[in-house]
Write a structure and sequence with these properties.
Elements lengths: L5 H5 L11 E5 L2 E5 L5 E7 L1 E6 L2 E6 L2 E5 L5 E7 L1 E2 L7 E5 L2 E5 L5 E7 L1 E2 L6 E6 L2 E6 L4 E7 L1 E6 L2 E6 L2 E6 L4 E7 L1 E2 L6 E6 L2 E6 L5 E3 L4 E6 L2 E5 L7 E4 L5 E7 L1 E2 L7 E4 L6 E4 L13 E2 L6 E6 L2 E6 L4 E2 L1 H15 L6
Antiparallel strand pairs: 1-2, 2-3, 4-5, 5-6, 6-7, 8-9, 9-10, 10-11, 12-13, 13-14, 14-15, 16-17, 17-18, 18-19, 20-21, 21-22, 22-23, 24-25, 25-26, 26-27, 28-29, 29-30, 31-32, 32-33, 33-34
């Protein structure tokens, strides 16, 4: 579950506070720094995820566990795999099957699922008997179990895939949008981008009706914008609103979705990925081999074969940057104030 782009595709990492500690990469080990780069927890973990609901997922000795903000081990590394906390529990894998554990490490969902994603809006996508359905948090009831794929709930609906087509179901398992779409994305602010046949447009959450827009491609709608391509944009992508009005010029070779006011974008195929704001202005260099969406003020990137996190100001949480920032802050404080 803790793979590079799972947060983009399946929202496997819950949102974190912008003031939480941020993982930093020190080669083969990971630690945590305060926002801005001051050292907080030494690099002693094989892997680390951002904090979610006060705990951070870490890997040590090939197993996954959780620590608190001061680095105290709250749940010992004991799981084969795990996801971050969301709605009070974290999906964890033990002996080949998935369940969900609370912050005391107590199982609150039995270990009986082949796959289990974090809860959102009271439900979690789960796989049992080779098919996907929704696990309801309060009722502890597994509903559906008939789909090829299912995705996290957005605005009360879960996107499902069956027979190569996408639709949406409610939390009660009822099919509210039949699986007729060749592409469909999560709802956000009342709309979901979709493709019906060769026509692109948006599904209204209020009416569940599809309205075509004159574009040859439309990506996920998020924070009021979706990346898109038009016939006269010469293969470049820009951003539109739900009415199809262009909000950001088509200046990019590839575009990602907005999250936290920023979106990853590829300026050209000879360069790398960077991040733009809602005006289309670059806020980082275009240099990254990979660039995920922002969550809680941080995004995971890859550069020259190394993965690490950056914040919305472009600060890179690597061991060199953290050491430099910590040393500079200690020098400003003076010897009598260092710890």
């Amino acid at each position: 579950m803790v793979k590079f782009f799972l947060a983009l595709l399946l929202a496997g990492c819950g949102p974190a506070s912008a003031q939480e500690l941020i993982p930093y990469n020190a080669g083969k080990k990971w630690g945590f720094a305060a926002p801005g780069g001051r050292l907080a927890i030494a690099a002693r973990y094989d892997y680390a995820q951002p904090f979610s609901e006060g705990l951070a997922l870490v890997r040590s000795g090939g197993k996954y566990g959780f620590i608190d903000r001061v680095g105290k081990q709250v749940i010992a590394p004991q799981y084969q795999s795990a996801g971050s906390f969301s709605e009070g529990c974290a999906p964890v894998k033990s002996r080949g099957v998935w369940g969900c554990a609370d912050k005391a490490g107590k199982p609150v969902v039995p270990f009986e699922y082949e796959e289990l994603l974090p809860f959102r809006e009271g439900a979690a996508p789960a796989k049992k008997g080779g098919r996907w359905g929704l696990l309801l948090k309060n009722a502890r009831e597994f509903r559906g179990g008939i789909y090829d794929e299912i995705y996290p709930v957005s605005e009360g609906l879960a996107r499902v895939k069956t027979g190569g087509k996408y639709g949406f179901i409610g939390l009660d398992g009822r099919e509210l949008v039949p699986p007729v779409y060749a592409e469909a994305f999560p709802f956000s602010r009342g709309y979901a981008a979709a493709r019906l046949g060769d026509r692109y447009g948006f599904i209204s959450r209020a009416t569940l009706a599809f309205k075509e827009r004159p574009f040859v491609s439309i990506g996920p709608y998020s924070e009021g914008l979706a990346h898109a391509q038009a016939l006269d944009w010469e293969g470049r992508c820009g951003y539109i609103d739900e009415e199809g009005r262009q909000a950001i010029q088509a200046l990019f070779a590839m575009c990602g979705s907005f999250d936290g006011g920023l979106a990853p974008a590829l300026k050209d195929f000879e360069g790398g990925w960077g991040y733009i704001d809602r005006t289309g202005k670059a806020v980082t260099d275009f240099k990254y081999a990979r660039a995920a969406g922002f969550r809680g003020g941080v995004a995971r990137v890859e550069y020259e074969g190394r993965a690490f996190f950056i914040d919305s100001k472009g600060f890179e949480y690597t061991s060199a940057a953290v050491k430099k920032k910590t040393a500079a802050q200690a020098k400003r404080k003076g010897p009598q104030e260092t710890h």
